[in-house]
Design brief:
105 residues, alpha+beta, Glutaredoxin, two-stranded parallel ribbon, 5 helices
Length: 105
């Protein structure tokens, strides 16, 4: 999430909302977001409802959910999906911002 915070203004300039989902309950999520002063929206998903909708994987031996990034356009259509194999397998902000820019073409 630190990566997303770094370029938050770039996402705002592109009228792009960042929504972070996590397995924690609402209280834990609110506490984490408050403690880290995160500028985007967090959505607790302890029942894994959204996880299942988008096919995000859980790997018990890697301690939980694998990272997933979904770029959804203003019409609600998923235009890009990346399923990571580890916490290091996350697209860079530049890659995501370039994808957002390409949607305007």
């Amino acid at each position: 999430m630190a990566q997303l915070r770094q370029d938050h203004d770039e996402f705002v300039e592109r009228e792009t909302a960042v929504l972070v989902l996590g397995p924690e309950n609402q209280q834990a999520f609110e506490k984490y977001f408050s403690e880290h002063n995160l500028p985007f929206t967090g959505l607790p998903d302890p029942s894994q409802t959204v996880l299942k909708l988008y096919g995000q994987q859980i790997k018990i031996f890697k301690f939980g959910r694998m990272p997933a990034q979904v770029l959804v356009d203003k019409a609600g259509v998923a235009r890009y999906v990346h399923y990571g194999h580890s916490m290091q397998d996350i697209p860079s902000n530049t890659e995501i911002l370039d994808l957002i820019d390409s949607l305007d073409d």
